[in-house]
User: Fold this.
Amino acid sequence: MNVDVTTYYLEMTDPHELRPKRLAHEDLEIKQAQVPSPELNRFLYTAVGGDWYWIERLTWTYQQWRDWLDRPALQTWVAYVSGTPAGYFELEAQAEGNVEIAYFGLLHHCVGKGWGGHLITVALERAWRMDAARVWVHTCTLDHPSALANYCARGLRIYREETQAQEIPDSSPGPWPGAQRA
Assistant:
Protein backbone atom coordinates (compact mmCIF):
# COMPACT_ATOMS: atom_id res chain seq x y z
CA MET A 1 0.00 0.00 0.00
CA ASN A 2 1.29 3.47 -0.86
CA VAL A 3 0.68 6.21 1.75
CA ASP A 4 1.87 9.74 2.38
CA VAL A 5 4.00 9.79 5.53
CA THR A 6 4.95 13.03 7.23
CA THR A 7 8.19 12.91 9.20
CA TYR A 8 8.84 15.47 11.94
CA TYR A 9 12.40 16.25 13.02
CA LEU A 10 12.64 17.73 16.50
CA GLU A 11 15.55 19.13 18.48
CA MET A 12 16.57 20.55 21.82
CA THR A 13 19.67 22.75 21.95
CA ASP A 14 19.88 23.49 25.66
CA PRO A 15 19.22 21.12 28.58
CA HIS A 16 17.30 23.91 30.33
CA GLU A 17 14.61 23.63 27.63
CA LEU A 18 13.59 20.26 29.04
CA ARG A 19 10.13 20.27 30.59
CA PRO A 20 10.28 17.06 32.59
CA LYS A 21 7.41 14.79 33.41
CA ARG A 22 8.00 12.55 36.39
CA LEU A 23 6.14 9.42 37.26
CA ALA A 24 6.12 8.04 40.76
CA HIS A 25 5.85 4.29 40.34
CA GLU A 26 7.69 2.20 42.88
CA ASP A 27 8.17 -0.73 40.49
CA LEU A 28 9.49 1.32 37.52
CA GLU A 29 13.22 1.06 36.82
CA ILE A 30 15.20 2.33 33.84
CA LYS A 31 18.53 0.58 33.35
CA GLN A 32 21.22 0.73 30.72
CA ALA A 33 21.82 -2.51 28.83
CA GLN A 34 25.59 -2.65 29.31
CA VAL A 35 26.25 -5.74 27.19
CA PRO A 36 25.41 -5.47 23.47
CA SER A 37 22.65 -8.00 22.83
CA PRO A 38 21.12 -8.31 19.36
CA GLU A 39 18.44 -10.57 20.85
CA LEU A 40 17.36 -7.93 23.38
CA ASN A 41 17.34 -5.01 20.96
CA ARG A 42 15.52 -6.95 18.25
CA PHE A 43 12.91 -8.00 20.81
CA LEU A 44 12.45 -4.38 21.93
CA TYR A 45 12.36 -3.11 18.34
CA THR A 46 9.61 -5.53 17.32
CA ALA A 47 7.68 -5.39 20.61
CA VAL A 48 7.56 -1.58 20.59
CA GLY A 49 7.50 -0.86 16.87
CA GLY A 50 5.53 -3.76 15.45
CA ASP A 51 2.25 -1.88 15.59
CA TRP A 52 3.81 1.28 14.11
CA TYR A 53 5.39 -0.08 10.92
CA TRP A 54 8.92 -0.26 12.26
CA ILE A 55 10.07 -2.58 9.50
CA GLU A 56 13.48 -1.26 8.42
CA ARG A 57 15.47 -3.51 10.78
CA LEU A 58 13.35 -6.66 10.43
CA THR A 59 15.64 -8.00 7.71
CA TRP A 60 18.86 -7.30 9.63
CA THR A 61 21.14 -10.24 10.26
CA TYR A 62 22.52 -11.03 13.68
CA GLN A 63 25.82 -9.47 12.61
CA GLN A 64 24.12 -6.26 11.47
CA TRP A 65 22.47 -5.97 14.90
CA ARG A 66 25.79 -6.66 16.60
CA ASP A 67 27.58 -4.06 14.47
CA TRP A 68 24.91 -1.45 15.33
CA LEU A 69 25.02 -2.18 19.04
CA ASP A 70 28.68 -2.88 19.69
CA ARG A 71 29.86 0.74 19.42
CA PRO A 72 30.77 3.19 22.17
CA ALA A 73 28.52 5.77 20.48
CA LEU A 74 25.35 3.75 21.17
CA GLN A 75 23.48 3.27 24.43
CA THR A 76 20.37 1.18 25.01
CA TRP A 77 18.19 1.92 28.03
CA VAL A 78 15.33 -0.36 29.08
CA ALA A 79 12.37 0.53 31.28
CA TYR A 80 11.10 -2.27 33.50
CA VAL A 81 7.93 -2.45 35.57
CA SER A 82 8.00 -5.16 38.22
CA GLY A 83 10.93 -6.72 36.38
CA THR A 84 9.12 -6.88 33.02
CA PRO A 85 10.25 -4.81 30.01
CA ALA A 86 7.96 -1.80 29.53
CA GLY A 87 9.82 0.26 26.92
CA TYR A 88 13.20 1.42 25.75
CA PHE A 89 15.28 4.03 24.02
CA GLU A 90 18.49 4.02 22.05
CA LEU A 91 20.84 7.01 22.15
CA GLU A 92 23.45 7.51 19.45
CA ALA A 93 26.29 10.02 19.83
CA GLN A 94 26.98 11.62 16.47
CA ALA A 95 29.33 14.20 14.97
CA GLU A 96 29.45 17.78 16.22
CA GLY A 97 27.96 17.01 19.62
CA ASN A 98 24.65 15.69 18.30
CA VAL A 99 22.90 12.90 20.17
CA GLU A 100 19.99 11.20 18.44
CA ILE A 101 17.23 9.43 20.27
CA ALA A 102 17.39 6.76 17.58
CA TYR A 103 14.49 4.65 18.87
CA PHE A 104 12.01 5.24 21.65
CA GLY A 105 8.76 3.68 22.76
CA LEU A 106 6.66 1.60 25.09
CA LEU A 107 5.42 -1.94 24.80
CA HIS A 108 1.73 -2.20 24.01
CA HIS A 109 0.65 -3.12 27.57
CA CYS A 110 2.27 0.08 28.92
CA VAL A 111 0.78 2.61 26.50
CA GLY A 112 -1.78 5.05 27.89
CA LYS A 113 -0.49 5.04 31.47
CA GLY A 114 1.49 8.29 31.33
CA TRP A 115 4.82 6.48 31.23
CA GLY A 116 5.89 7.90 27.86
CA GLY A 117 6.43 11.41 29.25
CA HIS A 118 8.58 10.06 32.04
CA LEU A 119 10.59 7.81 29.71
CA ILE A 120 11.32 10.59 27.18
CA THR A 121 12.35 12.83 30.09
CA VAL A 122 14.90 10.23 31.16
CA ALA A 123 16.04 9.76 27.55
CA LEU A 124 16.65 13.49 27.17
CA GLU A 125 18.48 13.69 30.51
CA ARG A 126 20.70 10.74 29.53
CA ALA A 127 21.38 12.27 26.11
CA TRP A 128 22.55 15.52 27.71
CA ARG A 129 24.91 13.51 29.92
CA MET A 130 26.62 12.31 26.74
CA ASP A 131 28.14 15.80 26.32
CA ALA A 132 25.50 16.73 23.78
CA ALA A 133 25.36 20.15 22.19
CA ARG A 134 22.05 19.17 20.61
CA VAL A 135 19.59 16.31 21.10
CA TRP A 136 17.29 15.33 18.29
CA VAL A 137 14.66 12.77 17.39
CA HIS A 138 12.29 12.12 14.55
CA THR A 139 8.79 10.72 14.47
CA CYS A 140 6.22 10.30 11.76
CA THR A 141 2.53 9.90 11.09
CA LEU A 142 2.94 6.10 11.29
CA ASP A 143 4.07 6.31 14.94
CA HIS A 144 1.81 6.36 17.98
CA PRO A 145 -0.62 9.31 17.69
CA SER A 146 0.69 10.80 20.97
CA ALA A 147 4.40 10.64 20.07
CA LEU A 148 4.72 14.10 18.53
CA ALA A 149 2.71 15.79 21.30
CA ASN A 150 4.78 14.01 23.96
CA TYR A 151 8.05 15.18 22.41
CA CYS A 152 6.82 18.76 22.09
CA ALA A 153 5.48 18.76 25.67
CA ARG A 154 8.98 17.86 26.91
CA GLY A 155 10.48 20.88 25.14
CA LEU A 156 11.62 19.46 21.81
CA ARG A 157 10.91 21.77 18.85
CA ILE A 158 10.12 20.83 15.26
CA TYR A 159 12.86 22.13 12.98
CA ARG A 160 11.87 20.30 9.79
CA GLU A 161 9.03 18.28 8.42
CA GLU A 162 8.70 16.46 5.14
CA THR A 163 6.02 14.37 3.50
CA GLN A 164 6.85 11.53 1.15
CA ALA A 165 4.96 8.66 -0.40
CA GLN A 166 6.01 5.42 1.22
CA GLU A 167 5.25 1.81 0.40
CA ILE A 168 4.13 -0.08 3.52
CA PRO A 169 2.47 -3.44 4.12
CA ASP A 170 -1.34 -3.50 4.17
CA SER A 171 -1.18 -3.88 7.94
CA SER A 172 1.59 -3.39 10.49
CA PRO A 173 3.49 -6.58 11.28
CA GLY A 174 2.79 -6.49 15.03
CA PRO A 175 5.35 -7.73 17.54
CA TRP A 176 5.57 -11.12 15.76
CA PRO A 177 3.80 -12.80 12.87
CA GLY A 178 0.24 -13.73 13.76
CA ALA A 179 0.20 -11.75 17.02
CA GLN A 180 -3.21 -10.91 18.37
CA ARG A 181 -3.84 -7.22 18.80
CA ALA A 182 -5.91 -5.75 21.62
